[in-house]
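Board notes, transcribed. Complex of a protein with nicotinamide-adenine-dinucleotide.
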Amino acid sequence: MNSEPISTPSPSLNRFMDRRSFLRTSVQTGAAAGLFLSTSKNAIARETSPDKVMKCALVGCGAQGNRLRVSSKDVPGIQWVAVADIWDFARTPTARRTAYENKHQVDGAVAEYTTIEELLDKQKDIDCVFIATPDFLHAPFSRMALEAGKAVYSEKMMSNTIEGAKDMVKAGQETGQIFQIGHQRHSNPRYLNLRENVIKKAQMMGRITHCYGQWNRGVAASQPLGVPKGQEISPDLLAKYGYNNMEEFLNWRWYAKYGGGPISDLGAHQIDIFNWMFEQEPETLFATGGVDYYDGKEGRAKFELPDNVMCIYEYKRPEGMTRAYYQVLTTTGSQGYYEKFMGINGSVAISESPTYNQMYAEPGQDWSKWSEGPNPFILKPAESVINKFWEQERDWKKPSPPSYNVSELAKAIADVRESKPLAPWDLAVALERPPHAPHVQNFIEAARMKKPEHLTCPVDMAYRACVTVLKAYDSIASGQKYHFTKEDFAV
Ligand SMILES: NC(=O)c1ccc[n+]([C@@H]2O[C@H](COP(=O)([O-])OP(=O)(O)OC[C@H]3O[C@@H](n4cnc5c(N)ncnc54)[C@H](O)[C@@H]3O)[C@@H](O)[C@H]2O)c1
């Protein structure tokens, strides 16, 4: 039954269907079709023919810029031609690594530029620009590249301000260029299986009444980054590029001038997933948070933006209210990061980390039909992982009667109507590539075909997620529930 073609409720979703089928094929064959095998100079053009090879440049050679570059290695049709970064400590090693690690995607040298202006001015042959700089630069840099006629992949969070994000949408509209935002879960076949098959087609969980998301990161992983020895950028140069000092340049995420703090940096991914799964935006938001730990006291780091935020969103959906709770913590890594959707017939926990990949059927639900056929939606989990998450009953040593009297035992039962444990399943689709690879591929395909409708995270969709997240600051500041208006999501 579930191996039948999936019906598409609206034409606009056809792109997801087509995309997913392709991704599923890629996953099942273990690699994307068109994987480069040769490293000879002319290999790129020959092996991706008849499709155009897209000449690509990377702006921002930090952690994420390099992640995108590495993720692109099995994406057909990419030729890396240039990188740009104001910090030679990041730029030069990235240019060298590109030439070496992506050598099948390089024809000759990888040019190095300090600024995006210089890159766009001197390297006219570029088709696509990847922007992985701090958030405050996404809006001006995207506009520059789009106006220069390039397709743009800009990292999330779109901007640290709603005005900046709005300008990105406008720049996309004005130029008509391909413009993808880096919410890579939109192209992840595991997430697409959940969205298209489990939630929309099979409606396995029934009415989804609640969802939850968290990104918990411990103190060790939240410490400020220090300057590598001898790699300071001069104060004059830092000022020229808009940074107050080296400490802020490195730890930009924690300052409103450059970034949006953890709720934007990490929440951007997951709150976006609430909107994306429901295909709508929330009605209201209540948020609380603050700089409760990284306050500069007793040897602790001092950050400007809230180090923990908790939000409750209300989605008025056709089938009724869905409340979504989200938290980002930077003082504990407890249970990591994942999203959870809970319906009356079952629930699912999913994350970009494949640790969370399980569904749970409420008692009485028979989900076995969804595990049948050549493309099952769910699978029976291996016995070895059956207890990996909290829905399962744990073996525990019951108190032995002689040491308790009957009235004591009665007190030990929390609630006689305690729910029965839920039956575990695994989501059936795996991603056997780096998590960003399908999203980069989706962008390159859209750029090659000049088809914006092929994008899984176009700029206007990402804008609505950006507003949904950044309005948390309005609620925190006022202490009041924020009521979204239509105008909030319009450009
Ligand atoms: N999609 C994801 O999963 C994901 C994960 C991590 C980060 N990100 C996003 O990627 C972006 C970069 O994050 P990161 O962790 O790599 O940060 P980073 O600090 O490691 O890297 C930023 C790089 O930008 C360079 N840079 C700063 N100003 C510049 C300028 N004016 N011109 C050119 N280069 C400049 C810096 O020198 C640095 O090399 C952010 O927007 C972040 O939110 C996305």
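The two ends are 42 Å apart (CA to CA). Residues 59-65, 84-87, 90, 115, 132-135, 137, 155-157, 182, 184, 241, 265 surround nicotinamide-adenine-dinucleotide (CB under 6 Å).
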